[in-house]
What does this fold into?
Amino acid sequence: MKRESSGSAFWLAVGTLWWRELVRFYRYRSRVLGALGTPLVFWLLIGSGIGRSFGTPGGASYLEFFFPGTLLLIVLFTSIFCMLSIIEDRREGFLRSVLVAPVSRATLVLGKILGGATLAVVQGLVFTALAPTVGIPLSLLALVAVAGALFLTAFALAGLGFVLAWRIDSVQGFHGVANLFLIPLWLLSGALFPAAGASAWVRWVMTLNPLTYSVALLRQALYSGPPDATGNGPNPALSLSVTLAFAVVAGLAAFATARRPTASEGD
It folds into this structure.
């Protein structure tokens, strides 16, 4: 009975923190606009600007090729904006209240990461509704597959964002480090250009980049398989395995980081 009560308290705390992340995110319209609007503008401007200037797998338009990469960018932006709440909670004293509460720190980590991942999936699915406008057919199977791929990727990126936010005590510093670290990962993920035509060292970096497999997984999910439009990237099994491993490692890193003092508490 005691274990049941303890388990219920754990999931109640996780659910409360998860719901708080959702409410807090949508309360700030600027965050919603930044997380969804900025990638949308990138997609339209870059996709329309490049057009058919260079060949894409399967002869698809660049807007179609860039679509999965934009989905990943939405997940990236949403994760960054969500994890900003850790810095804000620290300033407002809420984080200290949670840390001294009779619940494990794992509830904080899981609540924050699940909240960020849920928001990213919702934002990503809203954008996915535009897929038919660039010739990507949508089916129920494709939507389920996209939602799963988005969740795994979002969980991983939210975990990384948690690790960064836990150790940084300013919003400006967090944005600077996140942009320095996460944006290059996105640029070298196959979101903007296929690896086949890149320099040897770029292809090597892309092979080691876990987001390369996340983009490939999103492409495969959108097309419900590996047709020509997905290019000669990683196969579905490898893409899923690496993305899943990425999510697990990032989650474990977040749990390990939460055991240490926060940036304001010192080491």
Residues 38 and 74 are 8 Å apart (CA to CA). Residues 2-258 form one domain.
